[in-house]
Automatic annotation (TrEMBL), chains A, B:
It comes from [Actinomadura] parvosata subsp. kistnae. This is TetR family transcriptional regulator. Residues 2-60 form the HTH tetR-type domain. It comes from the Bacteria. Keywords: DNA-binding, Transcription, Transcription regulation. The keyword Membrane does not apply. Residues 23-42 bind DNA. The keyword Zinc does not apply. GO terms for molecular function: DNA-binding transcription factor activity; transcription cis-regulatory region binding. InterPro entries: Homeodomain-like_sf, HTH-type_TetR-like_transc_reg, HTH_TetR, Tet_transcr_reg_TetR-rel_C_sf. Gene3D superfamilies: Tetracycline Repressor, domain 2.
DNA sequence: AGCATGTGAGACGAAATTGTCTCAAACAAT
DNA sequence: ATTGTTTGAGACAATTTCGTCTCACATGCT
């Protein structure tokens, strides 16, 4: 069974999303290669996880640019910020869904190198949210870091919803955006 | 070092919140007892985790009653539902904070017996949210299960915020309630 | 003092996982 | 066809964790 490094990583991610604690042997089987071959591509389990996390972080970083988040933060333009916010959240859903296991894996979250990178990326988003607050796009009475953590939490909610089959995949983006921006109370309500 | 079963569990929970993958040896050390004694109280690691989860579920279930959630669901009374919603969310913060590691521990989430109990408790909340929707307290255009998952996600956000020190403990309840009900957009805004 | 109970330290084997290695078979390229 | 590369199967030692067990010691009670 031949497999490129890329195919291995994709299959590994897919399996880790179902069994976050899978062993190297289980991952090799899921990929369809032998344990020896898996070790030829990734010298250790840490190596593999590092590579997967690095890939996820790359996609995340690319999204921050492609969504216009970076540019909008710099421009402080309200319309640009609004477009970027929507694109960012929609993109985050995809990344978070693909690398879902990473959302709640403690070993990844506490890995020094990975934590540094994640903190750095998250910090950019905090700055972006702060800019959105100044533009009147997001409430100014909420800490920007809380907003950032809220988005993270809602991504976890999306993952849960999809895993349980509670909502259809095509609906999650709308639900996330809507809930994040307007909350769960009716518009006229003041609770 | 003498310790009651209760003290052991409390100390174990505390340590697991910092090191979710802690071994029995590490837990024993954190509790301040020997590994042998820990095994005298809990025959296996599974046994300990089961006991901890059971305790968490009990508190959760108690909260569903003490918050008035159960009664309000049955009564369909709008004011009662509103009071219950507030009390439930505030109580969930405490439970989720105390047993934070359980929010994202895959081994607990997939344990058949625990999953059954958690699903059962969550189902009650879904019914409650549905009642709140009928009473006009929550938006009717959101799936009740999505609302339930949203609350779960926001609890994860709370845990993250407290771990990182992003927000003060006394503020989290207000932030959670406020964000959950009204979202992150300014009231006049329509994004 | 004498006795019973609980505890800590540590040894022990069992099991799982990891990373390395060897060797034979399959494969690709020339 | 031959050569060089890659792969799979499996053996291997090292490590970790777990659950059990023994034994000495302390603590409390009568």
């Amino acid at each position: 069974m031949a497999a490129t490094r890329d195919q291995i990583m994709k299959a590994a991610i897919q399996h880790l999303n179902e069994s976050p604690a899978a062993s190297m042997a289980q991952l090799a089987e899921a990929v369809g290669i032998s344990r020896a071959t898996l070790h030829r591509h990734f010298s250790s389990r840490d190596d593999l996880m590092l590579a997967l996390a690095h890939r996820a972080h790359d996609q995340w970083e690319d999204l921050q640019t492609s969504s216009g988040m970076v540019a909008a933060t710099a421009s402080q333009d309200r319309a640009a910020l609004e477009r970027a916010l929507k694109a960012l959240l929609e993109g985050l859903i995809e990344v978070a869904d693909e690398y879902g296991f990473g959302l709640t894996d403690d070993r990844l979250a506490t890995h020094p190198e990975l934590k540094r990178r994640a903190d750095e990326l998250e910090e950019r988003e905090v700055v972006f949210y702060a800019a959105a607050q100044r533009a009147g796009l997001l409430r100014a009475d909420l800490p920007a870091r809380w907003i950032s953590n809220t988005v993270f939490g809602l991504l976890v909610a999306v993952r849960e919803s999809l895993r349980n089959g509670d909502v259809a995949r095509r609906d999650v983006a709308r639900l996330l955006l809507d809930t994040f921006l307007h909350g769960a109370a009716p518009e006229k309500e003041r609770a």
